[in-house]
């Protein structure tokens, strides 16, 4: 309902505007007609129909001019509001319209004033004095000729009338003599005709020149005979025919008497040649037309001015209108181009410019539409390709995530490099094993990451794989990671694409430290067991034999050398037994007896053993408050701590500080025990063999202390490692699980 009422209101408003427009036009026509009437006084010589036709034509022109003016004014007002609102294209349209107005106004103004001047001069030239004087002189010559002929005829009529009246030739009995006299007069005076009429217009005598004998020579009527004005003695009648013009001069008989006293009339006729008659008629007609034109000089001049003004205004308005149309033909496609670029920028590639023209803009529009069509097709193709690429990427991402999950969850470390040696990937296991951050080495060449002997080892492995063209190389590698000895089983594989081109390599390595340690420990235990078994049995007979020899033959021989040798045998047998016992202990450690115990109590109990004997060594302890109970074998753990403290004391040369730090990680549920000294420290090479049996950096001992410690910690499902202490010394780290 609201839309319908709005449309009805719009129609009513439009109809009202139309009525107002029509009223304005009618009022303008009335006013213009009044103005035209007032300024173009055509005079009474121009006919009413011609005047009406001229006014109609002028009004039609004015109506056309008014209509064009309204259209132009409407477009100018529209252009003004568009420019005021800064509508796109209004500036260009304004410049084009202004240019056309200037281009049309200047020549039109010049031409208008030149035409006005030309018409004024031309009209002035047409009606100048010499032309009028020439026409008047020619007319005067013709009139004087007629007056001369008439005067001669009057003279001859006067003399003939006198003779006829004096000789009484009008009487009936003298008519013959009258005819002879008339012939004599006609021939003597060399007139073309002489006639004698009675008062009642009866021609009683006629004498014609020879050239008129074959022509009809009419009789004058009474009215024509009595046209003689009272104040004149004669009158002349002009009669035109094919061969010329007759000047028939009529006088009374007797001459110059009133008509009522006239006894007759004498008519003397002179023939004017056809050429002379027509010339005189043309001169007369030209004179009359000249006077007629002279009367229309001012109206014609005003009509020309109005016509030129209308034409000038038409030219100007047409130029403005053409400027509008040209500006519209240029700005409309430009606006559509702008709209098109905006829509395309916004992503609407289906936009088409619906503007038809057969010029270069039409070609440009076709190219634009073709471009948008191709862009739309290209976008569809790109969208399709993008969808396919997205699917492929999704599949690749899925595969990558799967591979990452696999790499992340496998226990082996994986590192890949490209053909130039740049590290491309590294999994979490490798980061954990090597104690490095993948982000720090990814994208870098392994030559920039590795240093020292590790770089030499990597270069050797790289060159070996390149030189031997082996696809697969497996080598054991030992290294100290953050001061902790590690043993790895490294698998080096060359990667090649489908064409056989080398695209890099992948390193897969496993941390076999514990496995190798366990294998070594088992081997050493077997060795120790065999040594203990094979060596321990003969020791007792040897010792008993030595003691028996000493008891039986010592007094008989009574030689100190003998006693000393027997004692030496017994002493070294005891030393060998002690050694064998240690091997035996290592080979077959007593069964573990787990009980709930507090690790800090075991440590403090162990430290108490060293309070009195180590005057220059300080043992500091730090225990977390949240240390839980652990399932421990009290004696074994105490033995382990004794071995570690002995090792630290030996490294410090019985002088320095030992720090024992015990903490608990509730997240990992792990108790961490750090025993650090400020001794001479341990080299990386020593770290790799530190927990192996029969390895010692000391001059004394069997090198089983740390191996026993490692065995005890392993029995408690814990781990032990060694690393450098800062600033000096070594640090043994034990991690025991809570359960």
Automatic annotation (TrEMBL):
Keywords: ATP-binding, Cell membrane, Kinase, Membrane, Nucleotide-binding, Phosphoprotein, Transferase, Transmembrane, Transmembrane helix, Two-component regulatory system
PANTHER family, A to Z: SENSOR HISTIDINE KINASE GLRK, TWO-COMPONENT HISTIDINE KINASE
Membrane-topology descriptor: Multi-pass membrane protein
Chain ranges of the Histidine kinase domain: 530-739
Catalytic activity annotation: ATP + protein L-histidine = ADP + protein N-phospho-L-histidine
Official protein name in the record: histidine kinase
GO molecular function ontology, one term from the record: phosphorelay response regulator activity
Cellular compartments annotated: Cell membrane
Family annotation (InterPro entries): BphY/WalK/GraS-like, HAMP_dom, HATPase_C_sf, HATPase_dom, His_kinase_dom, HisK_dim/P_dom, HisK_dim/P_sf, NtrY
Main location: membrane
Gene name for this UniProt entry: ntrY
Originating species: Desulfotignum phosphitoxidans DSM 13687
GO cellular component, as recorded: plasma membrane
CDD domains xref list: HAMP, HATPase, HisKA, PAS
PAS domain: residues covered: 399-469
Enzyme Commission designation: 2.7.13.3
Sequence intervals crossing the membrane: 20-40, 52-73, 94-114, 302-327
Single GO BP term: osmosensory signaling via phosphorelay pathway
Domain HAMP: 328-380
């Amino acid at each position: 309902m609201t839309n319908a009422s709005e449309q009805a209101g719009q129609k009513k408003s439009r109809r009202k505007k139309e009525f107002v427009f029509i009223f304005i036009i009618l009022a303008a026509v009335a006013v213009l007609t009044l103005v035209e009437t007032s300024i173009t006084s055509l005079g009474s010589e121009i006919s009413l129909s011609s005047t009406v036709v001229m006014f109609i034509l002028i009004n039609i022109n004015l109506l056309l001019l008014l209509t064009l003016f309204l259209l132009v004014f409407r477009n100018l007002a529209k252009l003004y509001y568009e420019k005021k609102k800064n509508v796109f294209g209004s500036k260009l349209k304004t410049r084009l319209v202004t240019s056309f107005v200037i281009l049309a106004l200047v020549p039109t103004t010049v031409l208008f004033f030149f035409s006005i001047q030309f018409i004024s001069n031309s009209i002035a030239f047409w009606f100048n004095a010499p032309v009028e004087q020439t026409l008047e002189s020619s007319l005067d010559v013709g009139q004087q000729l007629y007056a001369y002929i008439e005067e001669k005829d009057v003279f001859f009529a006067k003399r003939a009338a006198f003779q006829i009246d004096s000789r009484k030739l009008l009487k009936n009995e003298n008519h013959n003599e009258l005819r002879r006299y008339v012939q004599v007069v006609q021939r003597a005076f060399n007139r073309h005709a002489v006639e004698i009429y009675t008062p009642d217009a009866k021609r009683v005598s006629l004498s014609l020149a020879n050239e008129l004998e074959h022509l009809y020579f009419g009789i004058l009527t009474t009215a024509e005979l009595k046209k003689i004005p009272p104040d004149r003695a004669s009158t002349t009648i002009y009669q035109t025919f094919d061969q010329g013009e007759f000047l028939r001069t009529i006088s009374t008989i007797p001459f110059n008497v009133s008509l009522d006293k006239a006894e007759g009339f004498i008519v003397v006729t002179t023939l004017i040649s056809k050429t002379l008659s027509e010339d005189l008629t043309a001169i007369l007609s030209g004179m009359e037309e000249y006077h007629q034109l002279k009367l229309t000089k001012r109206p014609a001049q005003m009509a020309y001015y109005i016509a030129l003004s209308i034409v000038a205004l038409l030219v100007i308005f047409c130029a403005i209108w053409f400027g509008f149309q040209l500006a519209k033909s240029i700005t409309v496609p430009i606006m559509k181009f702008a709209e098109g670029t905006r829509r395309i920028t916004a992503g609407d590639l289906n936009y088409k410019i619906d503007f038809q023209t057969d010029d270069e803009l039409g070609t440009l529009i076709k190219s634009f539409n073709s471009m948008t069509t191709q862009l739309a097709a290209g976008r569809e193709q790109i969208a399709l390709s993008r969808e396919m690429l997205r699917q492929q990427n999704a599949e690749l991402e899925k595969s990558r995530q799967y591979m990452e999950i696999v790499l992340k969850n496998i226990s082996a470390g994986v590192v890949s490099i490209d053909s130039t040696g740049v590290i491309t990937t590294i999994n979490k296991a490798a980061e954990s094993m090597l104690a490095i951050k993948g982000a720090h080495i990814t994208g870098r060449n392994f030559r920039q990451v590795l240093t020292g002997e590790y770089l030499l080892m990597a270069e050797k492995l790289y060159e070996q794989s390149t030189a031997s063209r082996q696809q697969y190389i497996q080598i054991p590698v030992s290294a100290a990671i953050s001061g902790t000895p590690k043993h790895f089983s490294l698998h080096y594989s060359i990667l090649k694409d489908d064409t056989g081109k080398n695209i890099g390599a992948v390193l897969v390595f496993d941390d076999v430290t514990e496995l190798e340690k366990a294998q070594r420990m088992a081997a050493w235990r077997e060795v120790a067991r065999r040594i203990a078994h094979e060596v321990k049995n003969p020791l007792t007979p040897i010792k008993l034999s030595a003691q028996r020899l000493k008891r039986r033959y010592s007094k008989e021989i009574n030689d100190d050398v003998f006693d000393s040798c027997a004692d030496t045998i017994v002493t070294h047998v005891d030393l060998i037994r002690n050694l064998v016992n240690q091997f035996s202990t290592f080979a077959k450690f007593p069964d573990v007896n787990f009980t709930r115990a507090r690790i800090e109590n075991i440590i403090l109990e162990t430290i108490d053993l060293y309070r009195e004997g180590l005057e220059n060594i300080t043992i500091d302890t730090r225990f977390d408050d949240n240390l839980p109970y652990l399932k421990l074998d009290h004696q074994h753990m105490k033995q382990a701590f004794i071995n570690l403290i002995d090792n630290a004391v030996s490294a410090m040369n019985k002088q320095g500080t030992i720090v024992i730090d015990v903490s608990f990680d509730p997240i990992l549920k792990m108790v961490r025990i750090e025993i650090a000294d400020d001794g001479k420290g341990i080299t990386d090479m020593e770290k790799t063999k530190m927990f192996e049996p029969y390895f010692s950096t000391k001059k004394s001992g069997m090198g089983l202390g740390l191996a026993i410690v490692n065995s005890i910690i392993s029995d408690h499902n814990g781990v032990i490692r060694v690393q450098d202490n800062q600033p000096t010394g070594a640090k043994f780290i034990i991690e025991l699980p809570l359960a």
